[in-house]
Amino acid sequence: MPDLALRTLGGAVVHANDESFAERENLVRPGAAAFDPSAFGHKGKVYDGWETRRRRTPGHDHAIVRLGIPGVVRGVVVDTSWFTGNYPPEVSVEAAGVEGYPGADALAAAEWTTLVPRSPVRGDAANPFPVADPHRYTHVRLSIYPDGGVARFRVHGEPVADPRFLVTEGLDLAALENGGGVAGCSDQFYSSPANLIAPGLTRNMGEGWENARRRGPGNDWVELCLAAHGEVRLLELDTSYFLFNAPGAARVAGCDESAADPADPAAWFPLLERTALLPDTRHRFAVADPRPATRLRLEVFPDGGMARLRAYGRPSAAGRARLWLRWLNTLPETQLRAALAAAGASEAGAAAVLAARPVARWAALPADVAGRLATAG
Question: Which residue ranges does the record assign to the Allantoicase domain (predicted)?
Answer without folding.
Answer: 10-159, 179-315
